[in-house]
Amino acid sequence: MKIRTARRISQVFFFSLFCFFVVITDLRYLKGYPASLFLEMDPLVAFATAITTHSIYKGLIWSLVLLIPTVLLGRIFCNWICPYGILHHFIGWLLGKGRAADEQVRIESNRYRSLYQVKYVILIAMIVAALFGTLQIGLLDPICLFHRSMTTAILPALNLVCPSTFYVRQYFHVGAWVIGFFLFLLVGMNVVIPRFFCRVLCPLGAFLGTLSSAALWRIDRDPHKCVDCDLCLKNCEGASDPHTQLRKSECFVCFNCIEDCPEDAISFKFMPQLQHEITTPVVPVRRALLGSLIGFGFFGFGRSGGTADRNYDKKVIRPPGSLEEKEFLDRCIKCDQCIRACPTNVLQPAIFSAGLEGLWTPILNMKIGYCELNCTLCGQVCPTGAIQRITIEEKTGVGTHAEQGPVRLGTAFYDHGRCLPWSMETPCVVCEEVCPVSPKAIFSREVTIIKRDGNPITLRRPYVDPALCIGCGICEHECPVTDEAAIRVTAIGETRSRERRLLMDGGDTSAVRQLEQRQR
Amino acid sequence: MNENPDSNLPDNKISRREFLLRTGAAGALIAGSAVGGMALWQRKHIIPGFEPQKGLQLPSYALAPNSSLPSLAIAHGTEHEKTIRAAIGALGGMERFIQHGDVVMLKPNVAFDRPPALAATTHPEALRTVAKLVLEAGAARVFVADNPINSPAGCFLKSGLRAVANDLNLDLLYPESHSFSPLQLKGEILKNWTFFHEPFKKANKVIGVAPCKDHNLCHASMTMKNWYGLLGGRRNQFHQHIHSIVSDFALMMKPTLVVLDGMNVLMSNGPTGGRLSDVKPMGTVVAGLDMVAVDSYGYTHLLERDLAELTYIHKAHDRGLGNKNWKDTNHREVQAG
After folding, report:
1. Number of domains chain A is built from
2. For residue B246, what are the domain limits?
3. Would residue A368 count as lying in a domain?
């Protein structure tokens, strides 16, 4: 079997595996599959979160596995495993210069350019930002980017055309078009520069490229056999200059050059001579400095908006099990796996409500969904522990967790002017009906009023007990005033942050709660 | 590269030295990552917000009990300095409290950005006199610190306390974010709270210098309520359980001495005041070792109200944190010269 065939089999396999994981990340199918395996294998995710948190969360330890082939063979991940790279490879072949009749056009399009240093500048910026305390690799890490695009743009769009393919009910994602636009833009760039994303932007590629400086095997050209025809560049995916000194950190190990060489001058060798290669990535010091400044700026200017601090947005309601906001931003890679797994569609990518740093991180939108009481799927699929893998018992505060009480996401507040029984002489209290905690956080008091027409009417007017409300938002979701509900949850009272609690004692002195504790 | 000894070798032949170096580097990279990764591996999840809380314990700064000397002194007079000196003198002089070389923390109430005449903050002359007495007694270093409600720089400037600190070379500490650490307490409500720890890292004596004020919610702000200014964080939650919290302050802080400045008392519209008509001259300074006793005198004789309504005093008394029956304590009432 030709090595190119083996590579194509690998590409089809890993791309299919990725799509399989994307599709089965759904309450109906998710039966213990490692749905976030690609993210957990991603060494940049593990490395960058280790910088921000000094820990490697649960499954991220799998990323060590990927280090071994990289340190031995180079960036083999980029052209054999990476589903986003495979997508770009395929689109480049389909729409780009990959099938151009003129060999010279293809050869020229695959020559190394200094533009390809940009990914190292991006990587430096992201690592510097992480050192200061904001994790931004998810913006461009290919696995995060592809998961996010699949979840918020591709699947919902396909499901619109073919209903019931991926969802029981159509899913919506705030700002889906922005993510879809970027996907099209990045994929479309293959027409201009083959593997544009992989060569120019990919921070994971830059990270693996740096690691592959130590690789023991690499593509090697025998100068005695080489006739300088440059045909090795014809299909060179990485633009790594196999026709001269190989740029080791740029080579995707696609092996096309070996098969394209008419003279058999190129081979994959164990420890060829160092003087025939450019071992490490080439990044001028001034560009690296620029990258550091961008990283600092992203942290400094992003954080000084105060959105992670005192100026937090009432609508930044995080999924159950989320860490305190700054620690959350230390871990969230914006892969949006939680959004994919959420069975009610309540999780949405934030645009700017969570600040520049929180772009595309998950927040709850009760207009679209609500947080299901007996569900912790978001935490089950989160690869980095931004949403910790809490159990149902820990979330609902039962059994051994009764003393600390439930995880609260926020608190519900009434807007009397919009509430039917409060302002419009009309019975309702759907909110009380659907309130899922016991005893109910929403209770109502009966009042008899004289209506406008002079007839008496008895109404139940609803109230919230802040000591019992968990902020799940089903009251807001089910409120008949659907454009802007008469009861709305805001982030205050969330238990993940001691700074954002509403009640001094966590509700311990609530009369109902005391009664509940006595009964226990 | 021309000087590389390997260049003499035939193609694709590398020296043993280079082989060892390169395989060693690759192996070290993998092994190092594996060791580092395993060391940092977080195998278990946490439940965010419910982690066990830890905090520092504050020592007692109180003197050993001495029944032969008064524990409460009430001085009447017309001038701050003379009246305060008379009150402290009646307790046995500052030498009873401060020894040579002591590091003293003075806690004024600078909660608001107000001029001294409005009596919403500790009067600069009160702080000056206490600081002078402390320095005269041989204190090596004196800290002045508070975490105001209003902007700290403005409060210290306009209350006149910054000028006092400058004049007497006191160490004025602003509440900066690094100045706080969590404090552990077995309070009724206060269990773990962020605390203005910076001055207490060095101080071995603590003196509260409080104004006597009306308070909209808890009726009065005197020497017990003054310790509110040592806490940080979400203090606006304290109001949900204000009387429990104020009595918790008596558990939290065991001061060496408290001074209640009743020369001019904020009788109404507290704790901020705002009009001179809210202020009444009462010409009295109360000093004592037991802030519950000091405050019960202040409430009945300076604010001239019924002690029955001051829930936090009764809570503190019932919890054994002080004696609300000031008349039962060893007290002296003096007239300043």
Report:
1. 2
2. 72-335
3. no
Task: Report which secondary-structure segment, H or E, holds A246.
Answer: strand A246-247
pLDDT digits (tens, 9 = 90+) for A139-176: 999 999 999 999 999 999 999 999 999 999 999 999 99
Bridge partners of B105, per DSSP, are B143, B206
Co-location of A104 and A242 in the same domain: yes
Alpha-carbon distance B260 to A421, whole Å? 53
- Comparing CB atoms, the residue among A271, A275, A388 nearest residue B47 is A388
CB atoms < 10 A from the CB of A435, how many?
Answer: 27
Residue B154 lies inside a defined structural domain of this protein? yes
Question: What is the share, in percent, of chain B residues with pLDDT greater than 70?
Answer: 96
pLDDT at B14: 79
| Residue-level pLDDT at B125 | 97
Q: How many helices (H) and strands (E) does chain B have?
A: 8, 12
Nearest beta carbon to residue A275 from set B1, B19, B22:
B1
Which CATH number does the domain housing residue B144 bear?
Answer: 3.40.50.11440
Query: Hey, are the CB atoms on B26 and A50 less than 8 Å from each other?
Result: no
Domain harbouring A470, CATH code:
3.30.70
> Looking at per-residue confidence, does A403 or A60 come out higher?
A60
What pLDDT band is residue B15 in, cutting at 50, 70 and 90?
confident
Largest CA distance in chain B: 107
A401 reaches B (C-beta below 8 A): yes
pLDDT digits (tens, 9 = 90+) for B22-76: 999 999 999 999 999 999 999 999 999 998 889 999 999 999 988 899 999 999 9
Give me chain A's average pLDDT, please. 93
C-alpha to C-alpha distance for A334 and A295, rounded to whole angstroms: 17
| Domain end point (choices A278, A295, A330) | A278
Q: In chain A, how long is the greatest CA-to-CA distance?
A: 105
Task: Check A58 against B12: CB less than 8 A apart.
Answer: no
Q: Does B32 touch chain A (CB under 8 A)?
A: no
Class of residue B224 by CB neighbours under 10 A (exposed 0-12, middle 13-18, buried 19+): buried
CA–CA min distance A214, chain B (Å): 5
CB B9 within 8 A of CB A270: no
Query: What pLDDT score does A275 carry?
Result: 86
Do the domain assignments include residue A333? Answer: no
Q: What is the pLDDT of residues A64-101, one digit of tens each?
A: 999 999 999 999 999 999 999 999 999 999 988 767 67
Which of A6-10, A30-34, A254-258, B135-139 has the lowest average pLDDT? A30-34
Chain B contact present for A397, CB below 8 A: no
> In this complex, which of B1, B26, B46 lies closest to A216 when CB atoms are compared?
B26
Domain end point (choices A254, A278, A302): A278
Domain for residue B16, yes or no? no
B-chain residues within 8 Å CB-CB of A510? Answer: none
Q: Is A379 on the interface with B (CB under 8 A)?
A: yes
Please tell me which of the candidates A273, A385, A499 has its beta carbon nearest to residue B234: A499
Q: Are A255 and A268 in contact (CB under 8 A)?
A: yes
Indicate yes or no: CB of B26 within 8 angstroms of CB of A71.
yes
Q: Which domain holds residue A43?
A: 3-145+194-278
